[in-house]
Amino acid sequence: MSKTPFPGQEAAALPPRALASHFHDLSQQKAAHDLGLWIFLATEILFFGGLFAAYLVYALLHPGPFFEAAAETEILIGTINTAILLTSGLTAALAVKAAGQNRHDAVLLLIGITILLGLAFLAAKGFEYWLDIHHHLYPTSPDFPLEAPAAKLFWSLYWVMTGLHAVHMTVGLGIWAVIWEMARRRNFSLSDNSRVRIAGLYWAFVDLMWLFLWPLLYLAGRAG
Amino acid sequence: MGEIEIILPQASVEAGSTDGKLLGLIIISSLITLLVAGLVGIFAIRYRKGSKASRGRLPAWFDSDLELGWTLATGGLFVAIFAWAASQDFALAVPPQRATEVHAVGKQWMWKIEHPGGQREINELHLPVGETIDLVLNSQDVIHSFYIPAFRLKQDVVPGHTTRMRIRPTRTGTYRLFCAEYCGSEHSAMIGRVVVLSKEAYADWLSIQPEGDDLSTEGRQLFVSRGCAGCHEGSSKVRAPRLEGVFGGPVPLADGRTVTADDAYIRDSILQPKKDVVAGFAPIMPSFAGALDEGELVALTAYIRSLGRRDATATGGTP
Amino acid sequence: MSDIPFRDVDLEEDEAGPSTAEANYLEERFSLWSWLTTTDHKRIGILYLISTTFFFFIGGAAAVLIRLELFTPAGDLLTDDGYNKVFTLHGVVMVWFFLVPVIPSVLGNFLIPLMLGAKDLAFPRLNLASWYLNIIGGGFAVWAMLAGGVDTGWTFYTPYSTAFANSHVSLTAIGVFISGFSTIATGVNMIVTVHTMRPAGMGWFRMPLFVWAIYATSLIMLLSTPVLAIVLTLLITERLLGLGIFNPEYGGDPILFQHLFWFYSHPAVYIMILPGMGVVTEVITCFARRRVFGYKAMVYALLAIAVIGFFVWGHHMFTSGQSMYASLTFSFLSFIVAVPSAIKVFNWTATLYRGQITFEASMLYAMGFVGLFTMGGLTGLFLASVPVDLHMHDTYFVVAHFHYIMVGGMVSAFFAGLHFWWPKITGRMYPETAARIAAMLMFFGFNLTFFPQFILGNIGMPRRYHAYPDEFQVWHVLSSAGAVILAAAYLMPLFYLAWSLIWGRKAGRNPWRAHGLEWQTTSPPPKHNFLANPDVSGDVYAYHPRRNPRDE
Ligand code: HEA
Ligand code: HEA
Ligand code: CUA
Ligand SMILES: [Cu+2]
């Protein structure tokens, strides 16, 4: 690749894998990765934004039955899960920080805790789903417990919103698992690489989405 | 439908003013198109490569001021067109004063109309000229759209909503009625006509609507007016079984069973057509549940029973 | 005003190009596998060219069936369901698998890095992934078609699509959903590339306008496609899992679906025109040999369309029963979004002024674009006027409007770009005469096909009708006749471009004597695009001397 005399290229004496051949230097590569991720997160916000719009419309159209339906969610599990997720957000942020300081063992440990907390969240969520199904809280159930038709709107939104969130969680856990394994094998230099930071940002986003879902789905019906 | 007017007439209050706007837009757009095409053409010829036209520096006026100029000009023109178009007297925007309400229900694939006096019709709408009528629109299944080109009006008919369309016919005649929102297989067959009558003729028409006959004659009328004949009789494009001689006999079903066509079967066929589908036919018959009241069901069943006995003679031409 | 003799810039066509040791990107490796796993943006561009061409002909075959059926008033060729499936297939394939990717992913992919003097897009592997997503999505659509088709129309309106259609709605929706991710991936890639990989010395306002156009398009892609993704997700869950978000029986609102759908789809129509505007700008300035008139205004116009385009979606719903005040607001904004379009049209025209115009095939296409886009856009204003739309909505007037922009405009622009950069892409010249004939035939066939549809709409012919009353037949016959000519015109390039691959004259580095970094490298370019650093010091559109430095 020495035939392509772009400025800056020769100067960087780097581990071979760190710089992709089409970038001039690491700072350009880092800028590109960061920007890419931020843009991706912006699209994710719009993705959930459609759901929030639907929620808002129906909450305004059928306030009574909609919020009565919200009172049927499992607030205890929902709240515990919020706590779990926030803690995992903290450990993820610490992992990013530790990666910046190249503290290898700390990174492994913190990512490991994050993964365990994420799994705990999913397990609790699974249990909650089981309870919901047990209570016939899905719109196609013949024994759906609530009278008002709009209750089914709430429960449809509940399943879609939490379901999509769980999908995002699963993706996030997958990313953490890959990074954890790579870090364990010392495949890449922690401080020169955006990987941990990017995974951390994504995880923070998943956290953030839950912080919107929790009040909308669990707290809303219980306010008054 | 020979009496339908082919050249699009202006038959409502809106038609005239909409056509005015349309004409204005056509003139403005033609001028703009000519301007653009003309300039492109003239430049293309005058400044073709090697032509003698002078090419020097651009004249002083040919700069960003020019650009600002046409931006403002277009902006101004567009706002003006908007204001003009928006000045239309939208009957729906003014607070509703009371008008006669005619109810129309759209369903796959027919229009059911009910007049204030209880008179009903299918795929036809009779209206008195010169009066304001509020059409109150509901859908039983999917979105349809009530479209009368001669009135330049359409209104979507949305399940779960009640939409309204105010119509003010200004001219007697028979006009086309279309369903303008895609609604499934027979969207393009969901058409009918709007008959605008003079006030007297309208009153006469209302008064001669069927009162009561013997059951099977009434059933026959329902059979036509409810659209059964549209599928079940000879000239139809739709493939549906002929009903002559059906009653009392065995009917092979699509799922292999065979049933006897008794009263209950006929009734189920009308209310839940998907339950027992006749072998060899697509399950396209719409359910009439909720669309027919008990009396009408009885009459229809009576008519179909009479077909079975009389051996295929009862089907005459459509009135 | 003294005349100074016209002196063209000193770029001469050099036939041979610098002799190079490095193989060009086409010859670099041959195996099919090397193509299917390539991360070279140029090869991915070619992959997209192949897949979009394939989808164009599927959509085109459906168009042929539509026009044959409508030749007579009776529904005699297809059944009603058959017809509904055919126009749905036509719309779905043409929009999502042909027109949305065609310029950004074929020409954009190929050219953006070249125009920026870069070696590749920022995320080459993501780029390849986006192609796979696109064809996997297309695969689902084709699968749905083979399994029996979909009959919802490309707009998927609920509750028909959720509760009534018993065709393969979910399969198709999944296909479109997947292709949406492809669009998002392309958008991310383009934006990041433009932001981070411009060479030193190329400021924002020195980028070619094609790059700007792709940039603006990518913004729309990123902001609107997620909404499509969510609305399709809801549609799919409603069909497959019975979660009824739009179900009127639960009090759900089918109109909400329309709002979400058009919140995506109106901006998406600008995804389907801005890239074309970019192409046409490059072509016109080159063959008129004039600097683009009003460069900055062109940039701001692109951005303005991209932004204002997000606030007009309600103009598709004037008859849906939305409040008259909402309708008037959307109407007003639709008129506003037309102003930047007008700026573009006038600036293209002004660019011709005092040029040295030649009429290569791409220039003919570009001029056709200007005319047809103007007509399509102006008829858009008819539809944006509420009273007129109450009459025209869901008639053939709308069909004519959008074909004028999408086929007359965008497809012409694609052909303009394809011919313009063909020498760069393949290293061969196409046969000019054949190409000119095809361009003119297309213009003629196009107008014959779609102008009668304006009249049809005006006399009340509803769209999506498989059989129709007799009085409409005359115009339908004209339209079908035009479609035959149009089909012939679309088949021509297939043959002569293929011919040129083998027998075409070798193209030099810069056969059009055009500016722009892509013309500084060999044709076809080497794997890493440039053998030497491209010179970015020049003005992108230095086709004629400036009057004074402030002069734009
Ligand atoms: C690439 C695609 C594309 C583009 C760019 C546009 C551009 C525009 N469209 Fe169109 N449109 C579609 C594709 C597109 N549209 C499609 C696919 C549908 C149907 C969807 C469906 O239902 O299936 C549709 C439907 C549609 C409707 C709904 C019709 C209905 O269903 O009832 C409306 C209504 O307002 C509309 C308006 C406009 C307007 C105002 C513009 C404007 O952006 C146009 C701006 C351009 C100009 C105005 C021309 C240039 C200007 C000049 C030359 C200057 C003039 C000078 C002076 C006035 C001095 N479009
Ligand atoms: C986006 C791009 C796009 C393109 C390029 C086209 C191209 C064409 N379109 Fe289409 N069209 C749409 C987008 C597009 N369309 C959309 C979105 C709809 C709305 C759908 C809906 O309502 O849901 C629509 C609807 C639509 C209708 C209305 C259907 C109805 O409402 O009932 C009609 C009718 O004439 C039509 C015609 C055509 C024609 C003649 C072409 C021609 O330009 C096509 C020319 C190309 C060819 C003719 C290909 C040549 C190839 C061959 C001849 C090979 C044949 C091969 C075999 C048979 C193996 N289109
Ligand atoms: Cu009913 Cu179309
Ligand atoms: Cu639009």
Short characterization:
The complex is a heterotrimer of chains A (224), B (319) and C (552). Chain B has 319 residues and is α+β, with helices and mostly antiparallel strands.
Describe the structure.
The complex is a heterotrimer of chains A (224), B (319) and C (552). Chain A is mostly helical and 224 residues long. Chain A has one domain (52-222): Cytochrome c oxidase, subunit III, four-helix bundle (Four Helix Bundle (Hemerythrin (Met), subunit A), Up-down Bundle), CATH 1.20.120. In chain A, 72% of the residues lie in helices and 0% in strands. Chain A contains 6 helices and no strands. In chain A, helix 2 (63-70) packs across helix 5 and helix 4 packs antiparallel against helix 5 (149-184). Chain A is elongated and about 60 Å long. The N and C termini of chain A lie far apart (68 Å). The model of chain A is unreliable at 1-16 (pLDDT under 50). Chain B has 7 helices and 12 strands. In chain B, 34% of the residues lie in helices and 19% in strands. Chain B is elongated and about 95 Å long. Chain B is an alpha+beta fold and 319 residues long. Chain B folds into 2 domains: 1-46 and 95-212, Cupredoxins -  blue copper proteins (Immunoglobulin-like, Sandwich); 215-306, Orthogonal Bundle (Cytochrome Bc1 Complex, Chain D, domain 2), CATH 1.10.760. The model of chain B is unreliable at 309-319 (pLDDT under 50). Chain B has helices at residues 13-46, 64-86, 199-207, 215-225, 228-232, 263-271, 294-310; strands at residues 100-107, 110-114, 120-122, 124-128, 133-139, 144-148, 153-157, 163-167, 173-179, 192-197, 250-252, 258-260. With 552 residues, chain C is an all-alpha fold. Chain C has one domain (38-520): Cytochrome C Oxidase, Chain A (Up-down Bundle), CATH 1.20.210. Chain C is built from 16 helices and no strands. Chain C is globular and about 65 Å long. The model of chain C is unreliable at 1-19 and 548-552 (pLDDT under 50). At the B-C interface, helix 1, helix 2, strand 7 and strand 9 of B face helix 3, helix 5, helix 11, helix 12 and helix 13 of C. The complex binds heme-A (2 copies), dinuclear copper ion (CUA) and copper (II) ion. Dinuclear copper ion binds next to loops of chain B. One heme-A (HEA) sits between chains C (155, 269-270, 272-273, 315-316, 334, 337-338, 341-342, 345, 374, 377-378, 380-381, 383-384, 389, 393-394, 398, 401-402, 405-406, 410) and B (32, 36, 73-74, 77).
